[in-house]
Amino acid sequence: MKNNIIIKSLLVVIVVFIASIYLPQIYWKTFPYRYTLPRVYYSPIIEDILILKQVNGRGRIKDLNGKSYSMKEFESLVPQSNYSQLVYDGLLPDSVNGVEFDVPELRKNFFRVAIKPVKVFSFDLLLYPLIESAPDRPNLVYPDEFFTIKDRVKIINASLNEENEVFSTIFTDALKDNGFIFPPKKIFGNPTTRKPFDEGYFIVDNKNDLFHVKRVKDMPYCRKIELPEGTKIVYADVVEKSLQEFYGFFITEKNDLLLISYDDYKIINIPIKSYDYQNSNLNIVGDILYRTISVINDNKVSFFIFNREYERVTEYHDLVTHKSESTQGVLAAYLFPFTLSLSSEKSQFINFYFETTGFGFILFNIALSILFIVFLYLRKATFKDNYAFIALLLLTGIYGIVPIFLIRNFNQSNSGGV
Amino acid sequence: MIKSIIYKEWIKVRVTFAALFLLNVLVVLSISISTGNKFIFFDAATIYSKAIFYQDLFFIDLMFIPFITGLILGIIQYFPEMNSNRLKLALHLPMNESKTLLSIQFFGLFLLFLIYLIDTLAIATVGGIYFSSEIINGFLLVSLPWYLAGFSVYIMISVIFIEPLWSRRILLMIVSAGFINNMFSGIIFVNAIELFSLSLPYFIVLTFILSPLILLSGSNYKRGTK
Amino acid sequence: MNDLVVQVKNLTHHYGKKCVFENMNFEIKQGSIFGLLGKNGTGKTTTINILNGFLEPTSGHCLVFGEDSHNLSPQTKARVGFLIEGHIQYSFMNIKQIEKYYSAFYSGWKKEAYWELMKKLQVTENQKISKMSCGQRSQVALGLLLAQNPDLLILDDYSMGLDAGYRRLFIDYLTEYIKAEGKTIFITSHIIQDLEHLLDYCVILDYKTVLLTMKIQDFLRDFKQYKFEVVNDKIELQKNDLIKNYEIIKNKVTTYTFSGMNEIESYLRSLGIDYKDLHQVPMSLEDAFIGLTGKY
After folding, report:
1. Which of B94, C147, C215, C296 could potentially form a cystine with C74 if both were Cys, beta carbons 3.0 to 4.6 Å apart?
2. pTM listed for this prediction
3. What is the ipTM of this complex?
């Protein structure tokens, strides 16, 4: 039977699939939702938080009591972040809170780290470059050796396209000697030579132990790092900066933010709240005085300010209007029963990301079905033949419109049964 | 009887098939030569790093070739069937109509499969000379959606050409464009190796699910229009 | 198994709001030669498309060998030969390839019938169909049909694009073909003159209606043309049951009717028309066709 209900259903599935991807995309491109997040700074002078918000395209600075400040006032109140401008204006203080404000030191102590879900859910590299961390030259050199670790360490020479069995063996043995269980779960590091020095890679083995591995004068360096019981590292941002205070920031499965310091791999747990590594953006800004950590969620932002010993100084929370609460968002909830997306801001992988936004669409779907019934009446078609289409409109709403017209021609009175 | 249909299809497309085969071979050849040259002028480590960091797929020139191959084969196979309503000849044969249409389509898919297989083998062989197997396997994974795009466009051409109603044809074209666009969707990361690793099986299924839609068009054709 | 090859019952078709024909009824018995006649646009191709399953009618039934024409089984399709308007075939094949192609589908394929025709064309085996003339292509199509040897031959306007020679050739072969037992032929055409001696039955279509369904013999016997002159050249006539059609040029009137001369005379007298020289004019099939359907 050529005219099969199965094939027609297939068509419906495919068209709804395509429609649910592209119609919302077109909608959001036409009515984009823009928002800006506040930025939070701690002023050591007034010992309080200053909030920088974009209002109508201009920056407005207020403190927690609502008092406004000008840009110039702000720069003087937060000298640890604005030192460049203050130097330019000749207003840089000699010291603040007993800490000397020497420009090279200020620069050396400044860093920014951004951790987003898309980085957490990203691809493993096919091969990792085995960078020599102690070269005989002032700059790092891109190596000819690349490695991959499955059930052993396999090191390949790119120029020969052959495995370097000597290297493979000594590195595999070094890992094994330190208790590494193959295959590894994750490898973290910065596989680039555009950094001041190289700390190699931090590798999570199959039993969730963390290892620090690097190449030192062509020999393997491997240390197992003692983690608290039951810690599973899901992401690490290795920071290779001249500050050399810590190796990097590590995120655990339980959403803890850990710092591993240069001081014998001591683990420091930085206490933050509201962080969910699968959905939140994490921004860490460090300066000579403080560590400011912002946790950005869909509807809330949280700022945590710590001193250099990672003791909490203060925190601040604010609400953010989520896309779904905007006018466009509310309208979208009526139009689209669900949204399918093949890409996500929160992951590098192409997959089927399915999103629903409340039940407002039911009203719209009912309205569409009624419109369709009126249309049928005007075309003098029988309702009995079209029950399935009415049901389709009730279920999939705007997405169901195209499949209906692909399956049935409403110009003739008996064109195609379902 | 299916053999006879294949006989006729082969006569219809053999010259085009040869041309498309040649096109693919030439592209692969030019890729091989330029890759070899690259390794002469640059050091291997640099090329490896570029390959790994999503900046340079040595066979990126191949990206749209499977799509073009599928498109041209589809047009050459189905346009003569629709010209002057010649599809009536095929549907009038004393054979199950679904079998007739699917035989024509499967033959085309088979020809595409042959070409894509050669592409893959050639890339794997040439690549294997310069790149380690880890990189080659990753690259082959990247290219799979391109072949899926080729199969998809071929199948949708068969569905669109046989569909008699122009308004439906246009709707189908829009839907096809949307569908095939997905295969090239990580276009910025087009060479991101594992981009499709989670969703590839579903895309393979989705692509081949398109195949029976030709029967829907066929039954629309038999219903007639105006 | 009854010997009704084709049964058309209350066949109605509309294209959108436009009605093509309503309640068409006819039957084609085995062994007859059936013609579907009508001017262009009266629904001949529509009927053919429905008969071959390429159009779903608005309502009504069409049965071929007892099966619904829209869903013929492969076995039944093997018994039906179909000539598409314009002798359409695959133009990318040559005459040898196309014969080989079709032969695989029909048991009892008579290749001699095909090649006999091809010899007459004096073309090589490798002659591509696309490079043949209209007339030569019609021979290829005919040859393929004869080789298939179907029980029912449906010819949609076999005469399209053919000059007189090829048209006559076609008729000659068809005449030979029907001599074999049990063959049934269904022809549509708008060129009537060739078919006069070939057809057994005809259905004549007009815009929206079926004008008649009858044996050719009966039609030619019963449908008459009467001519007369009038003194007063401003007379008016109307089409009705008696007068199927008429034509008035100056003072010469031509009427067409299924009735006899007597009925015409009494009708004219009842209208008070002063006529003279009323006489019957013999008609060919074409004349009768035009008489029934009109010149425009």
Report:
1. B94
2. 0.87
3. 0.84
